[in-house]
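User: I'm curious whether this sequence folds into something compact or stays loose and floppy. Could you predict its structure so I can see for myself?
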Amino acid sequence: MYLSTFLSIGALMTPILCLPTVSPPFPLQPRQNDSIAVQRAGGVLNPEAAAEANPRDNTATRVFSSTTIKSSDGRCLFIDPQAGDFRQNLIPVQLQDCDGSEGEKWDIITEGEHIDQEDAMLAVSTVTQGCLNFDPRRKAGDQVILFSCGGRADGGGKVTDSQEFAFKDGETSLQLSPLSEAETCLVADGAKLGSAGCSGGAAQSFTIG
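Assistant: Here's the prediction. I'll summarize afterward.
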């Protein structure tokens, strides 16, 4: 309902129309619970499921923290947190020109809940806490992915040798060879990581830091 009041000017009575206050039809600030789209299963990130699938191992020995892993031509291993599924699993591991972004940061772990071999390491994304994982069952071009450490999508896995890579303590130049496939090395293949038989070639050489 509209209300009227009157303003007295001399002998005149002038009506003034008072309009009701109306709230704006949209929020002035973005809502904090807005959904985040992901590219694989689920379509939308589930933060609770992602946190359960990729908890940080606070017992782990990190010989390098928030470091880079570079190919022989100086590009950085990189992950896009929105390129996986609703749990932040199945994220492709890519190569890009280094720009200092969070997706380029890795923790190198030699002891912890998800590693049980000597002379081995896990490469864990600092931003998602998922592990570098080699899965030859997947189609070519999509075998090197980020996956929940321990190998179970829900985070309930303990150890999988598809995430353990040969490593000598203190080394910074290495081949990325998963213990699950001892004769296989990861290889810089355009914008992604692929795999091939270990040959010692430049495309199979990587540097930590």
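Summary: The first strand starts at residue 3 and ends at 9. Residues 1-32 have pLDDT under 50 and may be disordered.
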